[in-house]
Sequence to fold (245 residues):
Amino acid sequence: THTHTHTRTHARTPSDSLTQRRPAALNASWRAPSGRAKFEASARAILGDMDHHAPWVLKDVRFARTLPVWRPLLRRPLCVIPYRHPGEVASSSRLRSVRLWEEYVMSALTAAREARCPTMLVSFRRWLAPVSASDQARELHSFLHCGEVSGLVSPLDATTTERLLAAVRPSARRNTQSDSAVPRFSPAISRQLTPAALCLWRELESGRALKGHSQRETPLAAQLCYGSGAGRGPAASPLITTRSG
Fold:
């Protein structure tokens, strides 16, 4: 959605070398002052390189767990959390786990809130229909514009929107069970779609998952769907974009 800016594409994200280990191992190493100092030195080098191409974007599912350690090094970040029906995500993943989807979604919501990061939810499903895709593209453009991201095409014209949406390939979607009035998944997946998981899905779809995002100690979805501050439950992929200036 932006022009007159350099883009930087990596087969692997620049954060891979720092976040490829399991979160538990990362937490253990970052608690030690020496581990934290080593991480920050490496992270600053990565971010310094990316800043030569600002504004830039990093997309990595592990930000749901690691954003707290990146946040002190970021200048005015914006957070975008893409999401998809938990049954479809579990059906497409190797682990076939709805609970893992719950855990990452709740971690993403919590991490973005604690980082005081302006946040937008982006629906996978809405990209697949021309009208809703155009609407969502405009909403995302408005979010980035309000976040003062430089280099945006403004206003978002029809030609740019058409070019953006040409990158969406609905034919590549393998799981469409959630499109029916009564979604049907395999018995193994259906058994995992607990009331709490479906509640979280509805909160994402309605946008209520971000209600009170900047005030509450725990995400509203955690309170409504789980009755406490603890989210359970693959994978929302937090996307971090920096604003120049």
Confidence is low (pLDDT under 50) at residues 1-12, 229-237.
